[in-house]
Specification:
The protein is mainly α and 110 residues long. Helices cover 95% and strands 0% of the residues.
Length: 110
């Protein structure tokens, strides 16, 4: 093997090594792009998860308010029902007094 062949062989090896490094660089670039995409997707998922958590907290707060409102309405209805029963009892008692008063008035003759 003479000097020219050795140089040509060395040049071929350098060319192959260069191509291998280029292939490695392309692969690393592609992996980096995938990692960037995955990172972006994860960030978006975290953001949406936070939004969902806030929405659930808002729904829970509204549910608590609604529950409190229902309890107040129920208490008011019970109080109204109780008041109506008192009015009904008072009306019955007043009717009895009116009948008794009528009997007493009928006893008097003018």
């Amino acid at each position: 093997m003479d000097g020219y062949e050795e140089v040509q062989k060395g040049t071929e090896q350098i060319t192959q090594t260069s191509q291998t490094f280029n292939d490695i660089n392309d692969a690393v670039t592609e992996v980096t792009a995938h990692i960037t995409t995955i990172s972006s997707n994860l960030s978006e998922m975290v953001s949406r998860s936070r939004e969902m958590r806030r929405s659930v907290e808002e729904i829970a707060a509204i549910t608590e308010e609604t529950s409190a409102g229902v309890e107040q309405t129920s208490a008011s209805a019970q109080q109204t029902n109780s008041s109506m029963e008192e009015v009904a009892n008072s009306s019955e008692e007043l009717a009895k007094y009116a009948e008794e008063l009528n009997r007493h008035v009928l006893q008097f003759k003018l």
